[in-house]
Amino acid sequence: MSRQSRLSCISRLSRISRLSRRARLAAATAALATAAVALTAPPAPAATTAATADFGPAEIRTGMYAGPDDLCLEVADWRTDDGAPVRIWTCTGGANQQWTQSARGWVNLNSGKCLDIPAFSTTWGTQADQWTCDGGANQSWSDPPASHPGTPRRIVNGYSGLVLDVSGGALTDGTPVIQWEFHSGDNQFWHYNPEKPPYS
Known about the structure:
Blueprint: H1 3-40, E1 55-62, E2 71-75, E3 86-90, E4 99-102, E5 105-108, E6 114-116, E7 129-131, E8 141-142, E9 156-157, E10 163-166, E11 177-180, E12 190-193
Antiparallel strand pairs: 1-4, 1-12, 2-3, 4-5, 6-7, 8-9, 10-11
């Protein structure tokens, strides 16, 4: 091989070596950049857990405290339709007498529908019913203790400000449950089975 050919070959090899070093350097730089992004990227948000029920299912029972004569708030005749009336009845443990207090309101275990004051009524004597849960204020209820935590509850409608009331104070099977102005009557107090934590 001539001296000129040898020099040409060496030159080509040198260029190939330089290109190879550049390729390796570029690959290393890209790998470092990827690692830096991975280290500085914010962590993925934790999976959101489903909201859990606030309380229940439980029976909503008449009266100040538990006793043998308790009657239960129920959806009449195991009905599942919108507008089915709510009343009191001998406690049977049935799903139509079981309620879960959640962000949607008081939800009946049998029908899956919410305790409701129809048509956003603010009229004294309007009978409570059940309706498809829609987030309306007429399906929102608070249940402050009568005087201090652990005592019986008033159940107050979020729209009308009136309380659940056993109509006429008649503690017998089939008596309608209505809304009425709070007057501290025994027919306006309720307790739960099982009991609700006293400070909730």
